[in-house]
Specification:
With 298 residues, the chain is mostly helical. It has a single domain, classed as MetI-like (MetI-like fold), CATH 1.10.3720.10. Helices cover 73% and strands 0% of the residues. The protein contains 12 helices and no strands. Helix 1 packs across helix 12 and helix 9 runs antiparallel to helix 12.
């Protein structure tokens, strides 16, 4: 029996390995290998078209440390990502609580919300770009509302928030679905017991619901932060970094350096720095939130 069990376990491990190999090869080909190649090119002056790439050491990173445009884009992405996380967490929590309640047409509203997640971000950006530049100003002139007669995307102080509105509008779908799934894992008996003990809805939310949602909130935080830090599609479709660089994100800056200025080496150096920042922030988030998780087996 012992030999037979060992043979079965070995066959099972071989089967698992065979299923993992294609995924591992694809992951290596489309993620690990490009990352290594990008890291190499960050130490060169490659233009993207020349047959040779001259090794320049850390000169790209030295230039990056004094690059005002890079610092401006970095600051834009930081405050944009932080504000995006706050707004998304609040609104998706409220929406998930509403969709988890006993309301009519609940299934319809869930499906309608998730439909936003499958839309192309470039398409959504183009549509809202037309709304901002044509529909709203035309309506404002008809209603004699002077402030909105000029597109919000043409003002330095309002363009970032025009982008964020679109980002939140479409980006709420996945966080809401994740939080809704988290809400459905909370045992109903705990809420009922707390209500019998005199806890009101607010106390039950903070003492029961939020602790149970910490693992899900952790995932939402990382996904939303990543979305804010690597935002490209909305900028490309709606503002192209304008006006006056007010919406120039890091991803768009890297794209411009690569395909417009043909400075692939310097663009890769910026991409490496952004990747490191994203990994460090995500790790800190996961580490800090993991300590607050609810231990259901305790």
């Amino acid at each position: 029996m012992g030999k037979k069990r060992k043979k079965i376990n070995l066959e099972r491990e071989i089967t698992f390995a065979l299923f993992v190999i294609p995924v591992f090869l694809l992951y290596t080909m489309y993620f690990i290998l490009p990352l290594i190649i990008g890291a190499y090119y960050s130490f060169t002056d490659w233009s993207g078209t020349s047959p040779q790439a001259n090794f320049v050491g850390f000169s790209n990173y030295v230039e990056l440390a004094t690059d005002r445009v890079f610092r401006q884009a970095l600051w834009f992405n930081i405050w944009y990502a932080v504000l995006l996380v706050i707004i998304t967490i609040i609104l998706s929590t409220v929406l998930s609580l509403c969709l988890n309640a006993k309301i009519r047409l609940k299934t319809f509203f869930r499906g309608a919300l998730f439909y936003l997640a499958v839309l192309s971000m470039l398409t959504v950006g183009k549509v809202f770009g037309e709304i901002y530049t044509r529909a709203i100003p035309t309506a404002a002139r008809s209603l004699d509302i002077e402030y909105f007669q000029i597109s919000v995307l043409s003002r330095v102080e309002t363009a970032p928030f025009g982008l964020m509105f679109v980002h939140v509008w479409q980006g709420l779908a996945i966080p809401t679905v994740l939080l809704l799934a988290g809400l459905q894992t909370i045992p109903e008996e705990i809420n009922e017991s707390a209500a019998l003990d005199g806890a009101n809805a607010w106390h039950r939310f903070w003492r029961i619901t939020v602790p149970y949602l910490i693992p899900t909130i952790n995932v939402v935080l990382v996904l939303t932060l990543r979305s804010g830090l690597i935002m490209f599609d909305y900028v490309m479709a709606m503002t192209e970094g304008g006006p006056a660089g007010a919406t120039r994100s890091l991803s768009y800056l890297i794209y411009s350096l690569s395909f417009r200025e043909l400075r692939f080496g310097y663009a890769n150096a910026q991409a490496m720095v952004v990747s490191i920042i994203l990994m460090v922030v995500s790790y800190i988030q996961i580490l800090s939130l993991r300590k607050r998780r609810v231990h259901l087996d305790g």
